[in-house]
Amino acid sequence: MDVDSQPTMEETILVGDDLMTGPPSPVVPPEISSHVLEGVELCDGLLRNLFLCLQINDIEPFCQDEIALYRHCVERRDKEIRQRLQDSELKLGLSMPLDQANERAAQLESEVTKLERRLILASGMEGVDGFRQRWSLHGCLTDTRKRLESLKQGMENRKRDEPVPAQPPTTRRWFFW
Hints:
By secondary structure, the protein is mainly α.
């Protein structure tokens, strides 16, 4: 086999914008943040190393390892956080009193509607700023929809599991005049 006939692999130089491939990091609501973030690797050490490398070298091509390591860590972290958010909403749907669960579902539906409207407005923005805003809003919208689906699934599972309350036997009342 001739060495020249093998396809060459071009070197890819990662830049900061390569960290914006895929969905943005999920937003964790404060009321469930301690439960969701417990034990999750936040990648702060890798981010510190990346910033230090950029500060020392001043340009991205010299920080390829740091960018790749941080990107890999962030993808794992975000995947785990998204799963924990959905699990948390499912548990809330199963365990919350029904009126509070319905109120939470209405709140999430309102948030979905607000994000949809903001995404429509952002579609008119041009350039890099428009792209970043649409990217961020689309990620938030997708995450919020999945949280809402998980909450509703928990509520439905609870409704199926709850026995239908049996009618109490009617007691006979005797009236004597």
